[in-house]
Write a structure and sequence with these properties.
heterodimer, A: mainly beta, six-stranded antiparallel beta sheet, B: mainly alpha, 15 helices, 37% helix, disordered N terminus
């Protein structure tokens, strides 16, 4: 199996402290193809204090997905209107060897799920890391993504069944959403 | 001997004085030029890229245009940029391969010129070997199968000209011409070459309506299980109609021209070529990096049933083992109808791009 492209979008990046939260960033597109977006500097100065949780949305929630983002349009990140519009959440592409021994493409593209014509389901999910021990200052919080997990848990992905096209495939979209819940973990916090 | 020397010294000194006097009369005061962002680009895509060391000026753009149309840049004075980049063809060549000054043909189709200030990756040529517009403009002058000149000779010709030294002074504050300033001026002109007035642009702005066939064609363009063109070629949200990246679109299984690999040295880049914009297809035939297809129908047939597998073929080229997704005749016809709405008839008669 090969991976030739991996891009994904995180949004609504928040830090929490006792009954208070601050949004530190609107969105960040990570593109492993050209190593952009791997580091993210908050758009605001974070108020001093201790924070105990961090959360973000994988993709855009229903409100943010309605906005227009020229930088994302420019890199062709849009999701077709007939599939619910807005933006891709992820593009994960490459090739695999199918059951007949042939090298075939897969395009694990995630976004809004179309259940039927003009019937759409939101497909983003939120990721929260609790028990964070973080005091602001010059800190670096590492978020890790295990890209194998997208194919593993809870649904063991069979590329012979789901390779491409997956964007209009409702079942595939919901399975991506389910499998995405365990791909992220908290790495090192340098401070 | 001594007399001759002193006479030539005097002449030289006089020349210097006259030059100085001339420059004292000419004041370097270039007029900044603000690129007008087309309405259809505003709020959809990010602002164009203008390098801080080559900001646009009225004088620089005018000089660039003069140079673009001037055969003086070629070794025998017969060929200009515009010989192969013709306005009526959206600044490309109807020949599959352009013919250089010695009658030799190249191996790739000339690329059209428009909206280049929105090429945010700043890689130019089919194989991305130039890293800025200025850098791109260096090569055709010396390429042996194009203008076949040397920069030294080209600069010398310009420097001897009656007008150019003053025009360079007006644009850049020096009448000492250099390759750097020539390519800067040409790039300034090229950045003003904007196309954003197609039927589809007008439809986006609410000033035109598409036919049912054109609408259906756009839906095929946007459908992953049909045309799936939008991942690389943009959409209503990115009316550049290109991602400015490099892909292997399945036109060969064995490569005589390895494309991007030649630039990067990476075998994973074999057979990848720049995604061209789909804007102005009406004027830019033939198509593909080697101009192998003469019609839009042939291009659509290629993606529909002519795909050839290779190890670097893009994963978005589906069903390559059976040639593609096999669109119906009606789907092909609708797709073509939509593609033609991206052509901008006003662009190819835009007076500001004509030779003065």
């Amino acid at each position: 199996m090969t991976i030739t492209r991996m891009r994904y979008l995180l949004s609504n990046i928040k830090l929490y402290r006792s009954e208070d939260s601050i949004i530190v960033g609107a969105y960040n597109l990570v593109d492993l193809t050209n190593s952009s977006g791997l580091e993210y500097d908050p758009e605001i100065k974070i108020p001093s204090g201790s924070y105990d949780s961090l959360s973000f949305t994988f993709g855009f929630d229903s409100i943010d997905n309605l906005q227009s983002y020229p930088d994302l349009n420019t890199v062709n990140w849009n999701w077709p209107t007939l599939l619910g519009g807005g933006y891709h959440f992820m593009q994960y592409e490459g090739k695999f060897i199918d059951n007949d021994g042939l090298e075939q493409p897969y395009a694990y593209h995630m976004g809004t799920a179309r259940k039927a014509e003009n019937v759409f389901e939101q497909n983003y999910f939120n990721v929260t890391f609790k028990n964070l021990d973080f005091k602001n200052g010059d800190a670096n919080i590492e978020i890790q993504m295990n890209i194998a997990e997208w194919f593993k848990d809870p649904y063991t992905w069979d590329l012979n069944t789901y390779s491409t096209p997956l964007m209009p495939n409702y079942d595939a979209q919901k399975l991506m959403n389910a499998n995405g819940r365990n791909v992220f973990s908290l790495g090192k916090i340098d401070q | 001997m001594k007399n001759i020397l002193s006479i030539s010294s005097i002449i030289f000194a006089l020349l210097l004085i006259s030059c100085n006097e001339d420059n004292e009369e000419r004041v370097y005061n270039p007029t900044p030029y603000e690129l007008e962002i087309p309405e259809v680009f505003q709020n959809r895509i990010i602002a164009p890229l203008i390098p801080s060391d080559n900001t646009l000026t009225v004088e620089g753009i005018a000089l660039g245009k003069k140079l673009f149309y001037d055969p003086m840049l070629s070794a025998n004075g017969t060929q200009s940029c515009s010989s192969c980049h013709k306005l009526e063809n959206s600044f490309t060549d109807t020949n599959r391969f352009s013919i250089g000054i010695d009658g030799e043909a190249g191996t790739r189709n000339a690329m059209p010129i428009f909206n280049l200030a929105w090429n945010f990756n700043e890689t130019f040529f089919w194989d991305g070997r130039a890293v800025s517009l200025e850098n791109q403009a260096e090569e055709p002058v010396t390429n042996p199968i194009e203008m076949h000149n040397t920069w030294k000779a080209a600069i010398n010709s310009l420097q001897q000209d009656d007008n150019y030294p003053d025009l360079f002074f007006d644009a850049f504050g020096t009448s000492q011409i250099s390759m750097e300033l020539v390519t800067k001026a040409i790039s300034q002109f090229e950045r003003t070459i904007i196309s954003a007035n197609s039927k589809f642009d007008q439809a986006i702005l609410g000033n035109a309506s598409l036919s049912p066939s054109e609408v259906s064609g756009y839906e095929i363009f946007m459908a992953e299980d049909k045309g799936d063109c939008f991942h690389c070629h943009g959409s209503i949200n990115n009316p550049l109609w290109t991602d400015n990246l490099f892909n292997n679109n399945g036109i060969d299984s064995v490569f005589t021209d390895i494309g991007l690999e030649k630039t990067t040295g990476n075998t994973y880049d074999r057979g990848k070529f720049k995604t061209p914009s789909l804007r102005n297809l009406k004027f830019t035939a033939p198509y593909m990096h080697d101009g192998r297809f003469n019609t839009i129908e042939e291009v659509i047939d290629h993606y529909s049933e002519g795909l050839k597998f290779s190890s670097t073929i893009d994963p978005l080229m589906k069903s390559a083992y059976k040639g593609g997704v096999h669109l119906t005749d009606e789907e092909k016809s609708d797709l073509k109808a939509f593609l033609l709405t991206l052509s901008d008839d006003s662009f190819i008669i835009n007076q500001s791009f004509y030779e003065n």
